[in-house]
């Protein structure tokens, strides 16, 4: 049996706006767009992708699943993402090497420190 990871589904009140935000944040391409679903991938034929699906309710609790991103320069990347509309959040992480941010709809994600050589 073969199993392939296709994508992560993210519930969103406005899938187009949130999907475009993540496409810009990650430098990914849009592969499908409608008012109900918005899909992005690293490249058109490269998986996995992110699919943003419309829901009526706003996010109300901490994510059960989140993305970890590892840039070359954590401080610069955090500043860039905040300038795009992310915000710093405290989920009780304390003093750690990673920074917790939330996207424009409040979904938490982590920006990790550079990997040690």
Structure notes:
It is a single chain. The chain has 117 residues and is an alpha/beta fold. It is built from two helices and eight strands; from the N terminus they run βαββββαβββ. The strands form two sheets. The protein has a four-stranded mixed beta sheet with strand order 1-4-3-2, covered by helices on one side. A four-stranded mixed beta sheet has the order 5-8-7-6, covered by helices on one side. A hairpin with a 3-residue loop joins strand 2 (29-33) and strand 3. The longest helix has 12 residues, at 15-26. The radius of gyration is 15 Å and the shape is globular.
Spatial ordering of strands, largest sheet: 1-4-3-2
* Range of helix content: 10-25%
Largest sheet: 4 strands, mixed
Strand content: 25-35%
Low-confidence stretches: none
State Rg. Answer: 15 Å
Order of helices and strands: EHEEEEHEEE
- Mean pLDDT equals 94
| Separation, N- and C-terminal Cα atoms | 37 Å
Secondary-structure class: alpha/beta
The coarse overall form would be: globular
- How many DSSP E strands? 8
Number of helices: 2
Question: Keyphrases for this structure?
Answer:
4-stranded mixed beta sheet, 117 residues, globular, alpha/beta, 20% helix, 2 helices
Summarize the helices and strands and which ones pair or pack.
Layout: E1 7-12, H1 15-26, E2 29-33, E3 37-41, E4 49-54, E5 67-69, H2 74-84, E6 87-88, E7 99-102, E8 108-111
Brief digest:
This protein is an alpha/beta fold and 117 residues long.
